[in-house]
Amino acid sequence: NTGSSLERIVLNENVQGVSGAWFMYGFSNLTEVLGPERVDLKFHNGCIYNSDYSKLIYWPSAKPYSEDGLKCNDDGECMVKEFGVRAFSNHKYLSSFVVPRSVTKLGEWVFYKTPIKSLSIHSNVTEMGKYCFAYSSELATITLETAHVSEENLFSYCGKLTNVEILADLTSIPDSMFAVCSSLRVVNIPGTVTSIGAFAFSNSGLTEIVIPENVKTIGSNCFLGCTYLGSIDVLPTTAPSLGSDAFGNADKNYTGSEAVIKTMHVPQGSTGYESGDWASILQNKVGFTLYKDL
Q1: Which member of 15, 103, 192, 237 has the greatest number of CB atoms within 10 A?
Q2: What is the pTM of this model?
């Protein structure tokens, strides 16, 4: 994009439409987008909206954000219900961000590569698109109050993420949700979770993990590259099914013989952990011990 130095764009009446914020990608110094009022497109406070202001299409990359800057009705209530695809992508100044209570949908890539440090997502959010917060390299703290998470790579490649507080009754950890979160040491997975997706924690910095009692499946490469993962507590009384290479190279050191994972604790009287995939992945490794003591 050759327009990265532009600070202001005016769309004329001949523009036929705006298909998301993709067309603004690369305008890193932009603070304002203006244009004539039209049936399908509205402008407010230098930002682009759909026809009834229910969807924020684009917030300029160099325009400081405040919730007060969003379009409100005559009663002062925020009219925005959706942040569209890439609406804040590559924004320069976002720091802490609380999703407004009126917003129920976050589009794909909406906060991609932003400098957000802390994030709070309320329970009204019912949809989050893939790569929603991916590559937010400064993101350190997440408070997640919504159970509506299903898309892949929601928080992947957030290298400074250290604190994840999940307050909702999730039923799954989606594919690659925390992949390559290299500073992430511990995540408390809710007891309501029944499945953990492929690559969910791959190449993260986990040192320990507790698999809740209701988990039935652990996806392929789920813990691939978790070379600090020394301890696992697995609470299901029947061993969950494992996808291919579920523990990846966390089950062996560089020699391929000694387990990085040193201990696994499972319930007394549990079944399935001493045979099949579980046995082949872990129990033939030097330095590994299985304890039936939970």
Answers
A1: 103
A2: 0.89
pLDDT digits (tens, 9 = 90+) for 254-293: 444 455 778 889 999 999 988 778 877 666 566 677 788 8
Residue 163 CA to residue 140 CA, distance in Å, equals: 6
Take residue 2 and report the two structure tokens written for it: 């050759």
Residue with tokens 């690659």: 176
Kindly tell me if the per-residue pLDDT of 163 is higher than 60: yes
Q: Could you give the C-alpha distances from 234 to 210, 214, 278, 288, in angstroms and in order? A: 6, 10, 11, 15
Which DSSP string corresponds to the chain? ---TT--EEE--TT-----SSGGGTT-TT--EEE----SS-EEETTEEE-TTSSEEEE--TTSPP-GGGS-B-TTS-B---EE-TTSSTT-SS--EEE--TT--EE-TTTTTT----EEEE-TT--EE-TTSSTT-TT--EEEE------SS-SSTT-TT--EEEE-S--SEE-TTTTTT-TT-------TT--EE-TTTTTT---SEEEE-TT--EE-TTTTTT-TT--EEEE--SBPPEE-TTTTGGGGS-TTSSB-S--EEEE-TT-BSTTSHHHIIIIITSBT-EEEE--
Q: What is the largest CA-CA distance in the chain?
A: 72
C-alpha 27, offset from chain centre: 25
Residue 226, C-beta contacts closer than 8 angstroms, at least 6 positions apart? 201, 202, 203, 204, 205, 206, 247, 248, 250, 260
